[in-house]
Write a structure and sequence with these properties.
LacI family DNA-binding transcriptional regulator; 12 strands; transcription regulation; 3 domains; Rossmann fold; transcription; DNA-binding; 434 Repressor (Amino-terminal Domain); six-stranded mixed β-sheet; 12 helices; elongated; single chain; alpha/beta; DNA binding
Length: 338
């Protein structure tokens, strides 16, 4: 008489508990990738077929995705979230959005809350204060599917989707140089963020390629990424107080760019008369600003879509995924007020 292989048989053969085998077969994130692979490989080898009735009772997928961003009101993130939702809802997943407001502590709490809600996976863009990613690494090591977008953690081996920050920064800086500016400052977010590192690199490369010296006094970091007006204002005042003050600023962030324009307005600095500006921004209201600014626009909607497609692939994979990709999408330079 035919006797189907059971979870108990697999557990006995591998020296594991039945609950560990059951979780590995259900692909839950409590089990380490190594154990999961061992169980799945063995199950495949012996032709294990799950009981569909038992499986439907045990299926614990929440059909929800957690999203961690700094701020929904940020034009870039609101567009990325639209991209995320366009894929998720089509595929039957709910989206739970949380904001860190550039706070590491809030990021930790948000990530833990989403994991405790049993989301099937996380889409993460790090806060500007995040230095330690152990809260994410622990969940990733336990098998929770995770994809990073925009601000990524290089140490975690998973899919990542970013814009070509270096190229975008290079083009914006080169545009300022071509417009006749020689003393170009750089206002950016916290130094450890992946986007800050990449954009600084593009800025420096453009200066070097055009025979201009990189001046450390011209590079200013805002640890809160433009969320605090006073912080942006104090960095701009530091630049204005220099003996040889800059004649242009390349700003490396959406929130920082609009914040910079507000500071200029309040300090009665005319653009581009007193100071030219080019920045990263996806804001559609830039055309209404007077003065406006030349901006590097990121394909935020496409980044959100692609990150979600990659996450759902991880969530629905029958076997542990071991090969990961880093997708880099092109930026566009929108020239205003030459």
């Amino acid at each position: 008489m035919f006797e189907p292989v059971t979870i108990k048989d697999i557990a006995k053969a591998l020296g594991l508990s039945t609950s560990t085998v059951s979780r590995a077969l259900r692909d839950t994130h409590e089990i380490s990738p190594a154990t999961k692979k061992m169980v799945l490989d063995y199950a495949k080898e012996i032709g294990y077929q799950p009981n569909p009735i038992a499986l439907s009772l045990k299926e614990r997928r929440s059909k929800s995705i957690g999203v961690v961003v700094s701020e929904v009101a940020n034009s870039y993130f609101s567009q990325a979230i639209n991209g995320i939702e366009s894929i998720a809802y089509d595929r039957g997943y709910h989206v739970i959005i949380s904001q860190t407001h550039e706070s590491y502590d809030r990021e930790v709490v948000n990530v833990q809350h989403l994991a405790s809600r049993s989301v099937d996976g996380l889409l993460v863009s790090l806060s500007s204060q995040t230095n330690d990613i152990s809260h994410l690494k622990q969940l990733h090591d336990k098998g929770l599917p995770m994809v990073f977008f925009d601000r990524v953690a290089e140490e975690i081996n998973t899919h990542k989707v970013i814009a070509n920050n270096e190229k975008g920064a290079y083009e914006a800086t080169a545009h300022l140089i071509r417009s006749g500016y020689k003393r170009i400052a750089h206002l950016t977010s916290s130094s450890q963020l992946s986007i800050s590192i990449e954009r600084l690199s593009g800025y420096e490369a453009a200066l070097n390629d055009h025979g201009l010296t990189v001046n450390a006094d011209y590079i200013k970091h805002c640890p809160h990424g433009g969320m605090i007006y006073e912080e942006t204002e104090s960095k701009i005042k530091e630049l204005l107080a220099l003996d040889e003050k800059p004649d242009a600023i390349f700003v490396a962030g959406d929130r920082l760019s609009t914040g910079c324009l507000s500071v200029f307005k309040n300090l009665s600095i005319s653009v581009p008369g007193d100071m030219a500006i080019a920045g990263f921004s996806n804001s559609d209201v830039l055309d209404l600003f007077n003065p406006s600014l030349t901006s590097v626009r990121q394909p935020a909607f496409e980044i959100g879509k692609l990150a979600t497609q990659m996450l759902i692939q991880l969530i629905e994979a029958k076997y542990p995924v071991e090969e990961f990709e880093k997708k880099v999408l092109d930026t566009e330079l929108f020239v205003r007020n030459a």
